[in-house]
Amino acid sequence: MLYSLHRKQNFPTPVNEVWEFISNPKNLAVITPDSMGFKTLSSDERSMFAGQIITYTVTPLFGMKLQWVTEITHVKENSFFVDEQRYGPYAFWHHKHFLKEIPGGTEMEDIVHYKLPMGFLGNLAHPFIVKPKLEEIFRYREKKMIELFGKYKLQN
Question: Domain of life of the organism in this record (predicted)?
Fold first, then answer.
């Protein structure tokens, strides 16, 4: 079964400033909960580019440290990038990050499609373990992004 996660968030910050932050692989650790034990192992010395392979470790559940390898497959500066898992905890992971200029700031949108390993057992774990964990990670990310870029107020 293919699952999805969709989030949108607005900031009173120009697109290029948000892009500068989210396109730097080192900043992923800033917006990831400490409980995940996130650590970049390679390829965090440059901004995102198509073909970039990023290796890191995460400790998502029960203290199990896992290696995760993603490839940045598409990049359009100040607009979007896509990361896809090449090796890691999911059977499939495809994450699109979009930025769009809006009146008074930037809209950031995340669309994730993922499939769990272990077939039936993975699907059984989804509502009780995986989905709540992903929701927690993205809530933390939203909170950190507001701390960094401010809360967007609707334009009149």
Answer: Bacteria
One-letter identity of residue 28 = L
Q: Which residues of the chain have pLDDT under 70?
A: 154-156
Instruction: Please state, as a whole number, how many other Cβ atoms lie within 10 Å of the Cβ of residue 114.
Output: 20
**Domain limits at 143?**
2-149
Neighbouring CB atoms inside 10 A of 82's CB total 19
The CA dihedral of 7, 149, 13, 136, to the nearest 10 degrees, is 0
Q: Is residue 136 part of a domain?
A: yes
Count of structural domains within the chain: 1
Closest of 10, 1, 4 to residue 134, by C-alpha? 4
Enumerate the H helices of 23-130 as residue ranges.
119-125
In the three-class reduction of DSSP (H, G, I as helix; E, B as strand; rest coil), residue 97 is classed as strand
Q: Decide if 103 is inside a domain.
A: yes
Q: What is the pLDDT of residues 27-69, one digit of tens each?
A: 999 999 999 999 999 887 888 999 999 999 999 877 789 999 9
Domain-located, residue 155 = no
What pTM did the predictor assign? 0.93
Rg of the chain (C-alpha set): 16
